[in-house]
Write a structure and sequence with these properties.
heterotrimer; A alpha/beta; B mainly alpha; C mainly alpha; A: six-stranded mixed β-sheet; four-stranded antiparallel β-sheet; 10 strands; B: mainly alpha; Arp2/3 complex 21 kDa subunit ARPC3; two-stranded antiparallel ribbon; 8 helices; globular
Chain lengths: 224, 183, 199
Amino acid sequence: MIIFDTVSVTAGNRTVLADISLTLRERRIAVIGANGSGKSTFARLINGLRRPSTGTVTVDGLDTVKAAKDVRRQVGFLFQDPDNQIVMPLVDEDLRFSLKALKLSPAAENDRVEQILDSYGLTHLRHQPSHSLSGGEKQLLALANSMLRGPRYLVLDEPTTLLDLKNRKRVMAAIDALEQTVICVTHDLEIAATAERVLILADGRIAFDGPALDAIAAYREMAG
Amino acid sequence: MTTRDLVLIALFAAITAVLGLFPALTLPITGVPVTAQTLGVMLAGSILGARRGGLALVVFLVLVAVGLPLLAGGRGGAAVFSGVTAGFLFSWPVAAFVIGWLTEKAWSRYALLHAVSINVFGGILIVYAGGIAWMVAVAGIPLDKALYGSLPFIPGDALKVIAAATAAVALKRYQQHPLGQSA
Amino acid sequence: MKLTLYVRRDSPVHALSAGWKLGLLLATGLLILLTDDIRLLGIGFTLTLTGFLLARLPLANILHQARPLLIVLAIFFAAHALFTTVELGAVLTLRFAIMIACGLLLTLTTRVSDLMAVLERALQPFAPLGLDPEKASLVFAMTIRFIPALAETWETVRAAQQARGMDRNPLALLIPMTVLTLRRAEQISDAIEARGIDL
């Protein structure tokens, strides 16, 4: 359960998010809104990458600022541009890098890497340079990476914007198959339509909160 | 150092490598290659400041030393540090550090004129002083030959100074300059 | 850009530890400076090429990728032969070629992570001076990771400016390139922190 308690975020004298209080319990949640509506900041509050200026965000009771480290084990995060979340030269090295902090035995580390590569259909790429992967493969690797440490939540920040249709389908299928709670910030109404609950952000406020079909109708109306 | 500092160091070391992909010409006799890579030195100093800028070039040179073909023309390996032109390479981190240090000092009034003078001092004077001193002292090349051999590069370097200075000042104006953000 | 890196093979050269290979590279770099004898250097070059054969590398492929290097070598030889003597030109070119070939052999047969592990160990003595070997090796790895990515960005920016007829103005390339790189730095550090890695 993720709780936003009277959260505001300001940058300089600009209000990015204003007075948001919410409890998120659903398994599939989508957040939609125009560019600059505060969507990305909303996503980053959930794993403590952004700090609220006032108020608190908690994930299963853990404060995202005070217990950032524990929160980040529980919350995987997938960004828009796969190229900027792969930091090691080889696929295998990139996965191991995420496991380093867990201090597993070499055998356990190896097992975990094999297992995650297998579940995302990436086994044949294990020893390839990460740069040589296609856009879709890179995003699958990034997804594998965010699931590697066994989080209970996954936050997605426009995960398919830079992908072509085929890769978009491949990545979304992998995400749909997850047991975890997924909070997806997106421009893609097709993705939003599959959510149990949809939030619309406008100018840093929650403009709508409800089921997908109503949200999409409301969003279309707001966009004029 | 924050995560962001480490990432910036890596990316500017990488930029210096990418600049080496531009066609390199090797000048006769001295064998000094004409490269865009000193632009990386100037950019690292002017954009990252002293510590991060200097370290970016140290990282770049260490990777060259372990054999990665990152110098213009695909050269690499420890032996380049014992060649005739090694002094130029050794001067790069120093130059980036000095450019960065002066940029930080001048920050509140940093504009094109400062940027150009700082880069002329660090990116040309220090680099050439290091390079020529090495040629004379270590490689035993007579001073006049070393000087004449290096002169043809000055016009190219002057262009690089203007490019780096303009880019750094533009970043400050767009409020995208890292020194403006950490201050 | 193709940065020629690790090619996986089952070979004695691959099996040799990264520390040994790095040591050999350093030693070769020094040894070839000790001699002016073209025959000795010729033997050295042949030995280096033997290393490539032992490593079972796809030679045709490598030769193709190394074509720009061969051109650099040819120019290097021509310039030195013209301005000094053919003999001295040959000596210098052979040294240069051995050095490049050894570097290439090392990077083709050694995983970057193994090289970085050696570097990390080599940097340990500096730890008391405030240098963190683990952070340092991460920076080295990230540099290697992002060279091809930045080269690609450069190409994209160039193509975009070409469409506007601005590709001959270096500033029209340099400013967007630096802005994009700085933005990329923010995203990469966010991604590292999101993985729960504390630096």
